[in-house]
Predict the 3D structure of the following.
Amino acid sequence: MLKKYLDKTLIEAGCDEAGRGCLAGPVFAAAVILPKNFKNKLLDDSKKLNDKQRKELRPIIEEQALAFAVAQVSAEEIDRINILNASFLAMHRAIEQLKIVPESLLIDGNRFKKYKSIPHHCIIKGDGKYMSIAAASILAKTYRDDHVDELHLEHPEYDWINNKTYGTLKHRKAIEQFGITIHHRKSFTLLPKQLELGL
């Protein structure tokens, strides 16, 4: 059972990212402020839901949230600042876009770079513990999936429509055969060492 809040007296924003372990495309993050009385039996960590359930929840979250925002950090930026910092930056960009300034941030995971003077709480597996983080995980995941589906139209040979740019065997074999695109993260190990391209 997901908790509604960490502190009932504060305006809390749940934050989560999607696409951190992918080989290509941006990392996305979302920040969501839910009403304290928000209820939805289906709401859960996005990884525990199927595509249909996530798509069903997204408009409900967007309509009922007091505020929400989704942001991204490009593959080029990821290569420049590394994926951990890019994940923090994506969350910062999402928080910055919120139409309500939160008084507390609930962050999925064990690390975060402080955003301005807003107190934050890092919660391991927070997307399976707090409603606002679960809602953020669903928005980040669905927005990223939509973006990757568009990238797939440009580069169908990598099968991104199915693997969402994760390092599946089919994706890695396509890299071996066709090389990389501008969307690939050059700082990642795109192929096993013995097959590495001269990047």
